Amino acid sequence: MDxxxxxxxxxxxxxxxxxxxxxxxxxxxRAVGAALPRPAIITLEGDLGAGKxxxxxAICAGIGVExxxxxxxxxxSLVQHYEAxxxxxxxxxxxxxxxxxxxxxxxxxxxxxTSPVLLxxxxxxAAGTLPPDVIALTLTHDVEHPDRxxxxxxxxxxxxxx
Length: 162
Known about the structure:
By secondary structure, the chain is of the alpha/beta class. It has one domain (6-155): Rossmann fold (3-Layer(aba) Sandwich). It contains five helices and six strands. The protein has a six-stranded mixed beta sheet, covered by helices on one side. 31% of the residues are buried.
């Protein structure tokens, strides 16, 4: 792995918080966004209220999205675009999708192929259509500490899509 990827790999490996409170999770998300290589696809999984959109907003802050108030869960709009200095961030919420036809109508293949940064909430709705090099983040509530989240990371630390 080259030196350029090392800081990012560290954030996803030993540098990732294990059971962060929301403040620590947000700080980590901003650091990930700032170091994120492009193009990149980040999937965000977790129960309702686990912090997926909070983490998406923090990643967007690190990327440089200026209008952070616009970073909300796109549950009803399905797709939101946020302007950033190095290209747009596309934020997709697939929760309401029920079929492959709805995924196609969304222009899914083009979003995956052309988005500099693609954030995907409820990626299970697109099972089998995501490339293997996504950064998969899963948030769950810490049952012993309600103010904390358990963060699981699965990522290919090789260069992402080329």
